[in-house]
Each structure stands twice: as structure tokens, then as C-alpha cells.
Amino acid sequence: MTQNNIGKVIRFLREEKGISIKKLCHGLCSESMLIRYETGERLPDSWMAERLLGRLGKSMNQIEQMMSPKEYGNIQLQMEIGELLEREQWDETEHLLSQYEIYASGKVQQQFVWKIRAFSAIRQKQHEKAEHDIRQALNCTVPDFEPGQIEEYCLSGEEVLLIVMWIRQQELLGKGKLEENCRIVLQYMEKHISDDEEMEAIFPKIIYIYTQFLLKQRKKEEALDWIMKAKRMLTVAEKTDGLLLILQEEEQIRKSTGEKELYQKISCQKHIFEEICRMFGYDGESEINIWRRRKYYGLYLMPEMLVQERKKLQKTQEQVADLADLDQKTVSRIENGVYAPKTGTLERLREVLEMERSWYHSRLDTEQFFCLEIQKKITRCLSFHQYDEAEKLIGQLEKLVDGGKRENRQYIRYIWTCINREQKKITPETAIKNCREAFALTRREEMEKLDGILLGRTETMIVNYMARQYAVMGDWKRALEILEKLKNTYENSKVDLRFHYSEIAVIYSHLSFYYEKMDDFEKAEECCMKGIRLDLSSGRMRNIAYLLMQYACIQERKGKTKETVIRICSASYYLYELKEDKYYMRVIENHLREKYHTGISMDCISIPGKSKPTVNKLK
Q: Per-residue pLDDT tens for 476-521?
């Protein structure tokens, strides 16, 4: 799904839920503007689209975005402001916020400004100012809100978080009823938020605040029930925002109730994750991580894509302009991000550049949101080796989506190839042949000739799976060549790697393994470090345990002491235990027992090497 059909999706979801136009747009935009969005007459910007979808209980992260440099620049500013605030650099935060405020023309952007000022006040324990600033933030999109009237509103996850922030500050000032109001908010969420990603972003954060109150009231059993629900949600989703704080609360309760074995296990898990965050320069215990909403959608820049496609064909701006019946200055302005082209202009450029696919990258070309939810379930099934269930789901999806769309045929063919290969129904050679045919549905050129071209998510996954098959066949060199090109393209893009997390995270994981097999330990270690840093900066924990295990293998092959290898393997084990991944827990236990005649160590880990994150862009 892409942003060019977002209006139809919003209308479908609104009508499905029986929400009126007036209720959905209240505080955000006029009724006439929402109608224009729904009919496709106007495209909402990313902030408005995200908020409208959020109010319909859905996450924006399923939809891939194509942005102008100006819009992307504002998102970069938001990210930098959050990072400065986390490091308690108040003056720098205020300076950058003042710059952002110049462009904060919409209500959602203005709300962000007030929210950051409230964060700053909270960190400096200025509770009255914090309450005032949160109220101002709420008034931007939810004017005159009162918790007892919550059902009268259509709220997004971001607005729900602001409400909980406000409730908490009122409690600190002796004005509110935190327990009663939190229960009201939790009931609202259960009733109205149907998307897993949206719930994962909100629920644990509210639980952290709620359980703090319950613990003060000595309601340990009830607090622990809520904490375990939040912890389970975060670990299953492999998200880290607020995880250390949740583990900290569980650790305190287990200690106070005398549950020695559980206390020891949680302490190890917490300590390992805390140590990893510290070594890579991240403050996992900062409450800013509780209130932060990360953007996980795929993001592309129109000027960057146009330049890449033009250079691929070795055409000049003048040649493209002549063929598209445009002025050369217009093409130049589009490539420099000065001019945002209209739909007709984009279509002419697509034809001139011989593109088989739409400008809008998409895994599935559909207006039905539940198809994206099926796609997400398929990804999870493949991750957990549940191939029979994945087979049922892809069969169901195949009947629902339009088979005439190239992107849909490509995705379905790729998934069937994965399922059949993992079940050993086809050979690596057949899998490679199928991958090439799937890739050709959206690209005329062979994938080896697309050096420097930023691919779509499915295209990247196809290339990565092909590299895996070459590795299975023992052709490590070819697997490396393919993935190195992909890695370099993403790292050289103007877009922050976090907006291509799914693609680049897999590339780092596989490259670390391939480099190790080719005895290039330095590059293997580098990919491990980049992968861990990417996960932490993205609020994820999908690959950290695996990359630690891979790092231990590298140290083992380099002849490091067995104590070093055991410590790192044990760290990986505790993170897998946190994720309840028993398969890899057994793999590590067996390796330590057979190789070193020992078990899991409770010593802290120590990973040598510099691990400082960059602020603006991950490299």
C-alpha cells in the first residue's frame, strides 16, 4: 500500500467503523478537507495521514512514503530534537525547536512543539509548566478534552499518550485521579485500537505509568499482572522503547516478594540489555523513550529516485526533458527538490525512464488494510519457521489482492519461493531462478546491474534471499558481492537507515555471517556492530541476540579466550530468553557444553571496540 491511495483507505476504515466525517476530523482539519482526502482530490501530508489512520486505530508503518526533501527535513529535525532532549541538552533542544517551529504550520506539527517543551519541563521536574504545555499540546488537536468524555472523541495513539502524560502531571500536582483515569484510557484502547503496531507503541508506556501508581498503593500482584502483559507485548514485537523500565519494575517486585530464581533471571536479562545500551551510547532507562513515537514506515525521496533512474539509463536532464515534453529546468528543479511534480508529470517521467513499476514502492498494491495485516502475519510465520501457517495465509492473500498488479504478483511469487525452499520442496538453483523471475516483474534489468539503485522492500528481500541461496551452494563470494552492493546503496542514500530498517537489518545480519565464512573478521565485526547499533537506534531488538551470537563465533575463530566467547554467548542467551526463543537458547547451551564443557555464565558481557552512534544518520 502506498500514500497515493491513502484517502480511499481512510474512507473504507471510517465507514467500516461507523465513524462520521465530523468526529474523525474534529480538531484536525475541516470536514471539506477530509472529503477531499477521501476522494483523492488532495493527498494528506505524512503527519495528517498518520494522525487520521491513528484515529482509526491503524498504524502508518504499513504504508511506504515518498517525500519531498522539505518534508523529510522536518522529520529529521524531529528526530534530532528528540535525541538532544534525551541527552538533556536543553539549550540545543530549544534552539533546534525554534527552527522547527518556523515550519510547524499544521496542528500536528504545533502539537509536537508543545509536547517537546513538556518533555523538557518533566525532565527538569517543572510539573506545573509540564501540565500547562501538555494541555496546550492536547488543545492543538483535542480541544477541551476531559477523561470522562473520552468516548465522544476519536483519538490516535499519539493523542492517547498525551492524555496519559497530562493525567500523570495532574496526579503529581494533587489534582487528578490517576488510577480511575488510566482505567478509562485502557478501556478506550481495548475498544478502539485494533492494530497490533499501534497497540505496541502505546500500551506498555501507559502500563509503566499505571503500575508506578499501583506499586505506591502496594498493589504488587495487580501491578505485576500488568507488567507481564506489557513485557510480553514488547518482546513478542521485538521493540525496546520502555523495555528497560518495565524490566526494572518487574525486578523490584520479584525482589520484594522473595522470588529468588525469577529475580535472578530478570536481573541478568535487564543487566545484559542495559550494558549493551550503555556501550552503544543509548539511555534505555530515559523516560523520553516512554513518550517517544518512532516512525517505522519505508521512506523514499522523489529527487533521489529520479536521479538514480535517469543515471541508470545514462541519460542527461536535457534528454529526459525532451522525451517527457518538459523544460530542462523543470527536471533540474525536481531533482534538486525545489519543485514537487504533479501526478501527470510523474507518469510521463516514469514512461521515459522505462520503469515497469510505480514511483511508489509497495510490497502490496491494495486498498484493503487487512491484506497488509495478513502480510505482517506471513512475515512473522516465516521468522518462526511456521511454514504450514504461512502457506495458508499466502493462499488466502492470493485470492484477496489484484493479481494484475505487478507488485502483488512479485510479493506472492517471492513468498511461495521462500516457503517451498525452506520446506526443501525446491532446490537452491530453482529458488534463484524463481527469485530472478519475481524480480523481473518490476525491473527490466538484471539485479547485478542495478548498482546504486535504491530498491523497494520486496525487491531487496528477493535479492537477499538469492544471496542466501548462493551461500547455501557454497558460493560465498557471489553472495557477498550481491549484498555489498545493496548495503552500499542504502548507506549512501540521503534517507536515514532507520526508515529502511527491515531491509538493511537483514543485510547486516547476513553479511556478518558471510564475511566470517570468508575469514574477513574485521568486516564481519563491523557488520555486527552496525546491526546492533541500527536495532538500538530504531527501538528494536530483532537481531541483537543473533548478532551477539555471531560476534562470539568471530571471536572464537580469531582465537580469543574461552572466557570472552562464553561471556558473549551468555549475553546472547539471556536476550533470547527474554524473547522466549527456546530454539536458539538450546543452540547456545549445546555449543557451550560441547565446545567448552560449561554452561551459561552470569558474568556481564564485554564487547571490545568503539561503538559511538551518530546523531543524524546511521552509517
A: 999 999 999 999 999 999 999 999 998 999 999 999 999 999 999 9
Per the CB < 8 A criterion, the answer to whether 552 and 565 are in contact is: yes
HSE value, Cβ hemisphere, 13 Å, CA-based, for 81: 25
pTM to 2 decimals? 0.89
DSSP assignment string, 370-418: HHHHHHHHHHHHHHTT-HHHHHHHHHHHHHHS-TTSHHHHHHHHHHHHH
The rounded percent of the chain whose pLDDT value lies above 70 is 94
* Closest by CA position to 367, among listed 40, 607, 612: 40
Residues in a beta bridge with 64? 2
pLDDT number for residue 232: 95
Give the model confidence (pLDDT) of 545-594 as tens digits.
999 999 999 999 999 999 999 999 999 999 999 999 999 999 999 999 99
> For residue 79, what is the enclosing H or E element?
helix 69-86
Distance CA 87, CA 410 (A): 44
Number of residues assigned to the chain: 619
Q: How far is the C-alpha of 206 from the C-alpha of 198, rounded, in Å?
A: 13
Cα–Cα distances in angstroms (integers) from residue 505 to residues 29, 324, 464, in the given order: 37, 37, 11
Determine the Cα–Cα distance for residues 381 and 368; give it in Å rounded to an integer: 21
Contact 395, 32 (CB under 8 A): no
What residues pair up with 540 in beta bridges, in sequence order? 239
| Distance in angstroms (rounded) separating the CA atoms of residues 96 and 505 | 30
**424: CB partners within 8 A, 6+ apart:** none
Instruction: Judge contact between 547 and 512, C-beta under 8 A.
Output: yes
Distances (CA, A) of 204 to 20, 157, 200, 209, 291: 30, 12, 7, 9, 10
Distances (CA, A) of 449 to 310, 354, 444, 473: 14, 15, 10, 22
Given a cut of 70, whether residue 152 has pLDDT beyond it is yes
CA-to-CA dists, residue 276 to 71, 281, 517, 577, angstroms: 33, 9, 25, 16
